[in-house]
Predict the 3D structure of the following.
Amino acid sequence: MELLHTIYLIAITAEAMSGAIMGMRRGMDLFGICLLGTVTALGGGTARDVLLGHYPVGWIAHPEYLTFTIGAAIVTAFIARYLHRLRLVFLLVDGLGLVAFTVIGCDVAMGMGAHPSIVVLAGVITGIFGGLLRDVLCNEVPMVLQRELYATVALFTGVFYVALLWLEINTSVATLLALGSGFLFRVLAMSFRWKLPDFNGKEIRGLD
């Protein structure tokens, strides 16, 4: 689907820029910035393809994806001082990228005849794994393992998309509905600061 492919290119560019920004905050050189940007943008799809045995891996089959991500990271390194003004735009594009990655991951798994539960899992991995790798490389607790509604949005999007297809909704319509619903969920979660319950360890200190 051409729309989904366009959104994917926008998403990997935005994710590469977010990875590059974190790399700069950690004092990395240009190689480190490009590496972190590429891992953030393409890590989810790579993990999905390896787990599913889907070869060649996406960025090897389409080397232009590397061009997008490395180019975005380099540009970010030179215009970083202006990017704080675009924080809201980045958050919105990141949310769109999350749901787009999830739908794309589901499509890849379905194309391989995977079980519906694996289809959803493949979508979630595609959506969140790049950011998880970014945070680990930067020695931070991954955002998806904290209270932020991020992985939850990917899970919702994947389940909703698969359910629509199971109901024999047209694929294009199902894609648009899943993208729209998942993106709306992410925006609402950010706007109203929806969180999952957290456990800070106070409750179990008496068990030491």
